[in-house]
Amino acid sequence: MKKGILGLVFGLVLCLVLPLSVQAVIINGSFETGDLTGWAAGGQAGVQSSVVFEGLYAAWIGTVDFNDDDTNDFTGEGGTEGYTNNWISQIINVSGMASLSLYYNYYTWDYAGWDEPGFEIQINGNPVLSINAGDIDTTGDETSLDFTGWQLFTYDLTNYPFDTLTLTIYAGNTGDDIIQSWVYIDAVRLNPIPEPSSILLLALAGGSLLAYRLRHKK
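^ that's the sequence the OP posted. Answer follows.
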């Protein structure tokens, strides 16, 4: 009898979990393929393993330049003027999802008045997050490398009217190709809305387990 009850609970939990996991359709959202498989990209963008939020890899966009020598540390190329020239993008099926989330870590050598924005997230071509170099600058000049640390961005999908969206992430310089800005992106995820039937199944599972325990206390 005990095995039967536990089996029922396990089966109901599977019914809850499996339909939701099938709906998560972001391709390579944590970049663990070690490349940009599943993403369109342009300009200076790729995948690296030195600055990550989770796992082994994270994406980078813009001119990564820890030494402030105007050269991309990953490619050896010079800086790219115009932040919209460096980007990654993916068309994502968001049907039945509560939100889209990702982690970002924005870096810049620049300061107020420049690289505005130095990092931007767009949904269907509309900016939903923009960060300027001046927003995180600490010295008022290019002598310090400033960064946000890993931050969570979430886009609410509960009232989103379409089945798909286009996520595009830009980063880099705006008015010059000398003082560098870039961003790391990791853990791009869809967060599902629990279906009413799944909530009912979970409640039934909990009720069955409670009833079993009460009967065996007598």
